[in-house]
Amino acid sequence: MKSKLIIVLLLVIQIIYAQNDSISNAGWFSLGGRSTLSAFDADGSGLGTGGQFRIQLSNSVNTDWFADYITINVQDKIRSEYYHIGWSVLFYPFKTLQYPKIFQPYILAGHCFDYNKKTILTSNTSLDRWGSAVQAGIGTHINLSKRCDVSFTCQYMIHLTSDLESEITNNNVSIVKQNNTAFEGHMLTTLSVNYKLFRLWRN
Amino acid sequence: MEKLKLAIVLLFISCFSFAQNDELIRSGLLSVRLTYSPSYLFENNTSHYYLHGNIEGYVNNKISIAGEGYYFLANGSINEGELQYNHSAFFGASYHFTRNKNDFYMGIQPGLAFTKYQQALNSPTFTRGVNPLFSTLIGYNLYFYKCFHFFIQGRLILGEHIYYPTHNLNEFRLSAGLGFNLNTLKISH
Questions:
Q1: Which of B134, B155, B156, B171 to mutate to test the interface with A (most CBs of A within 10 A)?
Q2: Is the reported ipTM for this assembly greater than 0.85?
Q3: Domain boundaries A25-199, corresponding CATH code
């Protein structure tokens, strides 16, 4: 009797393991392009272009490695350019919302290196700074197929460095480097297209 | 008897050609296009003309990934203070609605513009820049033969040349012509 029970238990464990193995999404490497709208920045709103790759760690955790180039027009007087290189961790809280479901929501947070250069358009004088930033937000994949998705992400990025400030008063235009870290940032809304190219590993 | 044979042969040919068309738009289909593309700039109601090239790979009959480039050829306006060039490159994906030979699609493609703006005609003052772009596109392909297709595409572009003086790059571009296509993968049964 005991031996039968052990055999049944072993079979059940094997079936469960086999099921998990067949539906695991860990190891997928995907590549994509993205457009970003920067809003609620002290300088105004701007548009960015970039790319990213993803490495999925498990069914509920993904990682997003990105690079963006964003430009902001400050009242036709100053060009503010942001270069972001960073990474985010995506967590899928709903196990039932995965492919073949169309919408796959997630929360994400991460860190990035951040370079900002501001240039006065008329005189072409500029100031720049290197910094670091953290970002967090929410988003959703729109799964078009098993391998291809469009992702919509909204996140807030806080710069952990002293910002460059645009000062425009009447005809006076200047760029000032703040002495203190102001924890200012911007809202980044990103639309990306991604394709799962291959699996780096299988569970 | 001869008429019957002819009818059978014609039926066979038509079935064969239908089967070819039916399975043309599938995983592994690679399309290449090169054409002349006029545009309309919303800011100053002028036109630009581009040489438009693209390469598109179909992941399946619904999804394709494409890289596209526009080489600035001419400015339709003779006004002073115009873009001297506005080359651009895009990368993105499209979702297709296919039926037999017909292929309607829509897509999104982020991109970059490489621009030069001259303040006045023959003026030595100009600015060059690299500017992020966002574009959405809609189009139709007719895959009428195993290696040729007709295409038409409309693209809405949003962007700005943020150099002195600033210039809005919001534009609608239209492309149409004959494209070449090749199925790079065998049909998997």
A1: B134
A2: no
A3: 2.40.160.20
